[in-house]
């Protein structure tokens, strides 16, 4: 089954300990640091809208795009409950169709690791650049090479929650530089649990691979930081933020 189909309906249960408000605070600190007061923001790979809906709640105009219709369905329902006017679009970020002159394009929580081919990633960086206004920001993060190869790769994780349990088996392939995740979910339906399986793959990019691709795009400024700080990443950084200004 394709990635983020069954998983979409339990994603928020499994992410419930993530401090999304703190995540938005960090994004707003980035806006301040780069002197940007954005109005129009696009979030690529927005998933179930945890970031997009919260940004809209803070009065930004937000469009969220994602490859998974199921994730978008959940995002849309949550936006309706929160009464926030986010526009959700079903789009592969490899074929971006967005308004021009955007203030900010975001992609957080691993979206770029799902782009397995360097040529696709380069083309995404170029399209993002073309859709930003002068001074606009491109903010994205990756799960680091260290995290995918040493923490997630070659490990199995399991969690047992009320109504949903999962087994997450990970295999890191050094040659491809890709971590393949096999997910088995057991979701309660009345007295029985239904088993679902799906597979995801994430590429373990090294920060220098990303910076050398970004160097070829004419951004005026480019920085990268250990996530949620403005410090340079260290050898054990698990999430790295890249910030590019047009
Ligand atoms: C780990 S989730 C992150 C979701 C969300 N950004 C968050 O913070 O919770 C990764 C998302 O990337 C999406 N994705 C993967 N490949 C994509 C692609 N080529 N284009 C658009 N979205 C993609 C998946 O469907 C999934 O919703």
Q: Which secondary structure elements does this structure contain, and how are they paired or packed?
A:
Blueprint: H1 11-14, H2 20-33, E1 40-44, H3 52-57, E2 61-66, H4 69-82, E3 87-90, E4 102-107, H5 118-131, E5 132-143, H6 145-152, E6 156-161, E7 164-173, E8 178-189, E9 192-203, H7 207-214, E10 221-226, E11 239-245
Parallel strand pairs: 1-2, 1-4, 2-3, 4-5
Antiparallel strand pairs: 5-11, 6-7, 7-8, 8-9, 10-11
Bound molecules: S-adenosylmethionine.
S-adenosylmethionine (SAM) binds at residues 4, 45-47, 50-51, 66-68, 71, 92-94, 108-111, 114.
Describe the structure.
There is one protein chain. By secondary structure, the protein is α/β, with parallel strands linked by helices. It folds into two domains: 6-143 and 205-245, 3-Layer(aba) Sandwich (Rossmann fold), CATH 3.40.50; 147-203, N-terminal domain of TfIIb (Single Sheet), CATH 2.20.25.110. It has seven helices and eleven strands. It has helices spanning 11-14, 20-33, 52-57, 69-82, 118-131, 145-152, 207-214, and strands spanning 40-44, 61-66, 87-90, 102-107, 132-143, 156-161, 164-173, 178-189, 192-203, 221-226, 239-245. The strands form two sheets. Strands 3-2-1-4-5-11-10 form a seven-stranded mixed sheet, with helices on both faces. Helix 5 links the parallel strand 4 and strand 5. Bound molecules: S-adenosylmethionine. S-adenosylmethionine binds at residues 4, 45-47, 50-51, 66-68, 71, 92-94, 108-111, 114. S-adenosylmethionine (SAM) binds next to loops.
């Amino acid at each position: 089954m394709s990635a983020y189909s069954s998983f979409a309906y339990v994603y928020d249960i499994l992410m419930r300990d993530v401090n999304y408000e703190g995540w938005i605070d960090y994004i707003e600190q980035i806006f301040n640091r780069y002197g940007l007061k954005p109005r129009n923001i696009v979030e690529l790979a927005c998933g179930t809208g945890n970031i997009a809906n919260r940004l809209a709640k803070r009065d930004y105009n937000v469009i969220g795009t994602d490859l998974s219709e199921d994730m978008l369905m959940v995002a849309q329902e949550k936006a309706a409950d929160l009464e926030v006017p986010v526009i959700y679009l079903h789009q592969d970020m490899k074929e971006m169709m967005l308004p021009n002159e955007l203030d900010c394009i975001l992609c957080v929580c691993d979206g770029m690791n799902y782009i397995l081919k360097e040529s696709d990633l380069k083309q995404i960086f170029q399209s993002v650049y073309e859709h930003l206004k002068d001074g606009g920001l491109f903010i994205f993060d990756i799960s680091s090479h260290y995290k995918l190869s040493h923490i997630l790769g070659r490990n199995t994780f399991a969690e047992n929650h009320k109504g949903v349990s999962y087994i997450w088996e990970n295999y890191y392939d050094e040659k491809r530089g890709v971590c393949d995740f096999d997910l088995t979910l057991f979701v309660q339906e009345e007295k029985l649990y239904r088993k679902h399986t799906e597979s995801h793959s994430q590429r373990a990019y090294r920060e220098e691979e990303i910076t050398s691709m970004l160097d070829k795009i004419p951004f005026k400024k480019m920085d990268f930081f250990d996530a949620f700080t403005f410090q340079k990443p260290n050898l054990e950084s698990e999430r790295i933020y890249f910030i590019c200004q047009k």
